[in-house]
């Protein structure tokens, strides 16, 4: 079978290390022939991201902290220079202060709420609004979300509220950008041990519960998310937009 993403140029934001979900996504995309542009948040992770990207043929690496508009503008210019046309955008970025990810949601601070929403939800729109004009041959945008957007989950707190805003953004962006043949979707992944997950208190007990209760009786692997992301980036998913697909071994369907 020919490669599903041959000739497609895709932006991947959110690789921090080789455990990042974005890294597994990049591998699935590259295996199907996509050309990738990676971004890194700050100089702190530049070397690590560049080393990983060096293992993916024809990829480029660019800086972009999503809280800074001028950095997103520069990223857009560089993508236009390098690729001309963009076909895909993977958003795999989130942040909340550790102290907001334990205890009670009712104690969330004003600036902690704003920060979590700025990085974890608004950044999808901030980047989408600049890059969709590069998707002149149609495009696919996807982001990463979690069950905490739909249910009140212990210790997820403000991040759950930010993910709910992110999931609503998927629907509004899908409705806006459909006329340009640009699709917007999300993957709601089961819990996976990554850098971001380290911030969530009692993460091990969440993993144990999934292993015991999920219909498939196992936790989610990043490669499972990577392959679903590949499907969403490919023409196989051409009829799907504004959707959130659960890649969680079925955990979201169970009752308590
Ligand atoms: P990760 O720590 O590897 O990835 C988070 C990424 O966000 C990092 O690359 C970090 O550099 C980036 N980031 C944070 N602030 C940024 C900023 N200001 N500018 C640019 N980049 C910034 O962890 P991950 O688990 O791979 O997380 C990726 C996505 O998947 C997140 O949206 C997360 O909420 C979501 N998710 C994770 C899980 C899980 O259990 N790990 C489950 C469902 C959804």
TrEMBL record:
Pfam families in UniProt: adh_short_C2
Entry binding sites for NAD(+): 14, 20-21, 93, 163, 192-196
Binding-site positions, substrate: 96
Record: active site: 146, 156
Pathway: Lipid metabolism; fatty acid biosynthesis
EC number: 1.3.1.9
NCBIfam families: PRK08594.1
Name of the protein in its database record: Enoyl-[acyl-carrier-protein] reductase [NADH]
Taxonomy of the source species: Bacteria, Bacillati, Bacillota, Bacilli, Bacillales
Protein encoded by which gene: fabI
